[in-house]
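During the reporting period the student researcher (J.K.) took over the structure-prediction task from the postdoctoral fellow and processed the backlog of single-chain submissions. One of the processed entries is reproduced below for the supervisory committee.
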Amino acid sequence: MDQVIKESLRLLEAREPHVVCTVVRTTGMTPQKAGARQLIRQDGSRVGTLGGGCVEGDVWYYARQILRENSGPMFREYELTADVAERDGLVCGGKMFFFLEPRYPSDEKIALQKARATAAEAGPPIISVTVVRSDRPDVRVGESTNTMPDGRIFGTVRRPDLLTPAIALGKQFSELSAAASLNIEPGTELLVEAIAPAPTLVILGGGHVGKAVYELALKLAFRIVVIDDREEFANPKRFPQATAVVADFSNPFEKVELTANSFVLVATRGHKYDDQATLAAANLNVRYIGLLGSRRKNLLIFKRLLEHGIALDRIKEIHAPVGLDIGALTPAELAVSIVAELVHILRGGTCRPMKMSADDLERELQEDT
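J.K. obtained the following structure tokens:
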């Protein structure tokens, strides 16, 4: 579960005030994007990150001030200038907009946070809408509402002119645990968050590569399921922090709950089993399917998928050969290649080296002299 959501619920139930600081939106290059959170407790300790540096320190200062003065929420804008970048080692050239939300314990706050914690832990996803800026006397900054999967709405944001477009936006990414800002009119801005369980990574094949991917992916936000038809390769001792499932590769997902935010990696011990597992995965509504193996083997499997009625457009969505081209050979190197591609799917980016080009470097250095 998102640690900020979890800790906020714990503090509310313990009747301890705190502040949750959220990145509402960004422009340009910034160290965090919309939805990043940090919780500041009364003693100044923190959970989560906003990107570090003096900007995070400044937000922390104002959060402490809110708690000292028992005051209301705050909206703040920061420009990451060259001076900020030089001082803190941050990426410069962008702007970050933060909402600092004090959470003073109440039964309503606890109910709202319990619903968010439930959605983050086990689903189904909910859409949370918070007013972060308002010039209107009838719309109060800090008002917040949860929209449940069955359409029930509870909270303090009730106006249809606010909720209807916000819910429509949230439904676009409701299973992806994402966030976006929505300007209803000049001076009125909403933070729309889809709160959902962490993405699930299903590794089909508990061999050397599957084990290496599991160990690396544990450091990310994935829930991990490992499936193999051999118990010695799918058990809690081999994969202590994953759900291990023993199943035939022709029907591997019967006992696994998947969503549109699930990732599937096919890395079994042989062509026959890759063939079966990929066919099973191709019929799922998941975010990502990766197939380990050579180009030639993958093409043979794709031909079989066509024979089984899998549409060509669906086959084109399969990442095969899986991973980014870094010249990987060993299981550990292959895991780096594969997990890097998973991060790319989650976060975006170009997958190109971040190294400055020779021309850019020369131009920048000349401008500074």
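The committee noted the following: The chain has a mean pLDDT of 91.
J.K. will present the remaining backlog at the next meeting.
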